[in-house]
Amino acid sequence: IRGLAFPAKTLVTDADLAPLAKCIDLRSLVIADGSRLTDIGLASLRGCKDLETIAIEKCESITNSGLMAFRGCKQLKNLVLKGGSHGKLTDSCLVAFLDSKSLEGLCLGSFPRFGDEGLKVCRHLQELESISLEGCSSINGSGLRFMKTCVRLREINLAGCAVRDLLPEMI
Fold first, then answer.
1. Per DSSP, what are the bridge partners of residue 6?
2. What end-to-end distance do the CA atoms of the chain give, in Å?
């Protein structure tokens, strides 16, 4: 299996991900409803180092530690993680993706505990073209300076963030 997408009406659990431990050629994983997923389920994916796309929506129970299952995914191009008002990811969640030098698209949606300090990792993501931080209400804009080294960056979505008057600084 090279690509797997779980539709919105499928509640994916940790047990559903366990068989994927054998799918070392997996390139794309899309989970529309990860509300039942925990770090235990993500641990099953440790061997899937060739992932290019990871998209998990409604992943409120996943923590920074769980994302370490993706450490070493050097081919990762797109990362989409969407939580909600109780999302547990914090500033250190992107540390797991330091080796993902080919990351082009990053979307962290609705994680109120993810703030400007977490954007430091962006200094290492030279291929980053777009970033969406919609609903990350702890972003006030001071961390955007870490993205100045992202010379390919063309799109930034800060809807729902506490950012004001940054346009002159970002141009």
1. 31
2. 43
Pull the structure tokens for residue 31.
């989970």
Strand partners, 36: 13
| pLDDT tens digits, one per residue of 36-83 | 999 999 999 999 999 999 999 999 999 999 999 999 999 999 999 999
* pTM for this entry: 0.94
| Type of residue numbered 35 | S
Q: Give exposure, 96-121, as e/b (b: 16+ Cβ within 10 Å).
A: bbebbebbbbbbbbbbbbbbbebbbb
Predicted pLDDT of residue 23? 94
Q: pLDDT digit string (tens) for 79-121?
A: 999 998 899 999 999 999 999 999 999 999 999 999 999 999 9
Distances (CA, A) of 115 to 61, 93, 122: 18, 11, 13
The amino acid that residue 30 corresponds to is V
> Quick check: helix, strand or coil at residue 115?
strand
CB 136 within 8 A of CB 106: no
Q: Distance between CA atoms of 79 and 51, rounded to whole angstroms? A: 10
